[in-house]
Amino acid sequence: AVHFFEIIKNSAEKYDTIFIINPDHSGYGNEIALDENDHWVTPLGKVEIDKEFMDKLDFPVSGIAHQYEHSGEVMIPLLQYFLDYKFKILPITITRQNIVNAKIVANAIYESNKALNKKILIIASSDFSHHVEPEYGKHLDSFVLKGISNLDSSEIYKVIIEKNISVCGYGPIMTLVEYSKLVSSKPQTKILKIGNSGEVIPSNEVVDYASILFYT
């Protein structure tokens, strides 16, 4: 992830609001859920949630959907560490991950920002294959990465379901794909880094990770 955060740290862009879209591993809460709190706290301090954007999006609010979910909150310390300016966040949890909900979230953000006109950044939080042999995980992930590079949510969804690939946040990934096509006629993707947990602690059963930049 650091490869991505280094890029936004050195970017000329200063973001008003950073969306963190993540899956729901617990299954609690609504299909799409915003959080009920005014801010989130880490050892690095408080980060305010963008209530103005929340009101525009008009999604259900579910504290429990976020309370027991880790995949959104893990991004906050990285943002606090790498960005030296004040920003707000808007976490969105997607419990039912499908193309319809991905398009709903993408369109809601796009339409809402027509009125607000804020500088926004969207982070789709997801691990890739879970608890597999390193080479097999790399093989499975290649199908998903191909769908991402093609900016094709249908392809991403199809290979994950058909090949039973354990990418946990494919809903957020598809949301980012759909949003990129709303804001750009020719969106681009670049794989910044691919790795797995076995690179830290050697193992034949690893979790895979990829850092991918969407840009124009």
Structure notes:
- By secondary structure, this protein is α/β, with parallel strands linked by helices.
- The chain contains 8 helices and 8 strands.
- A 4-stranded mixed β-sheet has the order 2-5-1-6.
- Strand 3 (39-42) and strand 4 form a beta hairpin.
- Helix 5 (99-116) packs across helix 8.
- The longest helix has 18 residues, at 99-116.
- The chain is globular and about 45 Å long.
- The two termini are 20 Å apart.
- The mean pLDDT is 93.
Compact overview of the structure:
The chain is an alpha/beta fold and 216 residues long. It is built from eight helices and eight strands. Strands 2-5-1-6 form a four-stranded mixed sheet. Strands 3-4 form a two-stranded antiparallel sheet. Strands 7-8 form a two-stranded antiparallel sheet.
Helix content: 40-55%
Strand arrangement in the largest pleated sheet: 2-5-1-6
* Count of alpha/pi helices: 8
Given as residue ranges, the uncertain stretches (5+ residues, pLDDT < 50) are none
Count of distinct strands: 8
Overall average residue pLDDT: 93
Please render the helix and strand layout as text.
Layout: H1 2-10, E1 17-23, E2 32-33, E3 39-42, E4 45-48, H2 51-57, H3 63-67, H4 75-82, E5 88-94, H5 99-116, E6 120-124, H6 134-149, H7 153-162, H8 170-183, E7 188-196, E8 208-215
Parallel strand pairs: 1-5, 1-6
Antiparallel strand pairs: 2-5, 3-4, 7-8
Keyword list:
globular, alpha/beta, two-stranded antiparallel ribbon, 216 residues
